[in-house]
């Protein structure tokens, strides 16, 4: 369970988050929608402890992470995995080495077991045959799938997705969403997906939160959000939903 | 209004400088602490010794040879005016071992390996690879900075030693083969004048230059986002790293040189 309470953050006098309040239930996939540059990624970086808020609290299973030192924060991070916007794969390592990296660093298992586990993950995201390639040798969609495999390999409780489909064509977008959906069903992680892919994101989200002007202006199920009477939410959601429905 | 703006500007500039110095100092303290704390990234350390050390050998040999040759040429004409050509060997050796070897080797390695280290870490910063390490509860300093610092401490004195030896033989080629000095005079006087103390000064200098270059170049790469975004930020960081390392090398060379004189 993740609870964000009155979270505020400014950069050089410019307020990005102005009191974000949000509850994310265990095992749910919550999509956070909002305009580009609206503070979605900043919010995500606060949840993983990469940024410290000016004010407010973030509770992960009841523990306030905003005041934690590096050592304690690392213990909390053991529960997390992040799929970054452009994958953030280590470009000096092959796909295999990238996916194996968290296991090599964190677990004491044999090479054989590790190799088996990596290949299983690559199979789940459809990357068998690509394990020897470097990130620069594969497509954007494959990089994102490799990043998903790297996130999944430690079977984390919580996975944060920072715009996992940005820059992909509709076919690849659907493919990545279906991988997220399938792996969520299998592993049951709590997912937070930062996105502005409407209405596609509604297919994988259990709940949706809309971030605007540095605050969460609406939360609910995808159906609730579609029916919202809030003019900002409607402007964000309705034209595309209508277009998709037609 | 003008005075107020001036005071504001001075205040902002002072705060910026203090913050920068503080940030660099904390970065260094954290890195040094991690050098002595397991787990050690031994393979990464070996890889960086190869990158900073072995791959710099060709440029060190080339610059070392020409430095020794030009020293021989210039010192020969100077010493001849005093009738002291016999001291050419020790003059070249002392200049190289105490001063030019460590300084020029460090400057060459800064240009070759230091800039590449800054660019690599800078690109990792802007492509969120460093955030990825942090999000995996792995300390990026341990992976990216500590191996570079340890490798530089090992590689810089060795490169300076190669520079010195090649420089001395470069000087030999000019002094003996071109200018007609006897081979015995060149080396025997050298053995007489160059002491272990002189060699150790060169070792201390090059070791400390290694620390400076690794520290500055890693810090500039690590904080690339402070200097702008994307490729422009990385370019600026790389330039700043090379300039700052070179200036620090020369200033530290004077300070340590005056201490050991």
Layout of secondary structure:
The complex is a heterodimer of chains A (246) and B (261).
Chain A lengths: L1 E10 L2 E11 L4 E6 L5 H8 L7 E6 L2 E2 L5 H8 L2 E4 L11 H12 L4 H14 L15 H13 L5 E5 L7 H18 L2 E6 L11 E6 L2 E6 L1 H5 L4 H15 L1
Parallel strand pairs in A: 3-8, 3-9, 6-7, 7-8
Antiparallel strand pairs in A: 1-2, 1-4, 4-5, 9-10
Helix pairs in contact in A: 3-4, 3-5, 4-5, 5-6
Chain B lengths: L1 H34 L6 H11 L4 H25 L6 H39 L2 H7 L4 H39 L4 H11 L2 H27 L7 H31 L1
Helix pairs in contact in B: 1-6, 2-6, 3-4, 3-6, 4-6, 4-7, 4-8, 4-9, 6-8, 8-9
What does this structure look like?
The complex is a heterodimer of chains A (246) and B (261). In chain A, 38% of the residues lie in helices and 25% in strands. In chain A, the strands form 2 sheets. Chain A has a 6-stranded mixed sheet with strand order 6-7-8-3-9-10, with helices on both faces. A 4-stranded antiparallel sheet of chain A has the order 2-1-4-5, with helices on one face. In chain A, helix 3 (95-106) packs across helix 4, helix 3 (95-106) runs parallel beside helix 5 (140-152) and helix 4 packs across helix 5 (140-152). With 246 residues, chain A is an alpha/beta fold. Chain A has 2 domains: 1-79 and 159-166 and 192-246, P-loop containing nucleotide triphosphate hydrolases (Rossmann fold, 3-Layer(aba) Sandwich); 80-155, no CATH class. The N and C termini of chain B lie far apart (52 Å). Chain B is mostly helical and 261 residues long. Helix content of chain B is 86%, strand content 0%. The mean pLDDT of chain B is 93. Chain B is built from 9 helices and no strands. The interface between A and B is medium-sized, with 22 and 13 residues.
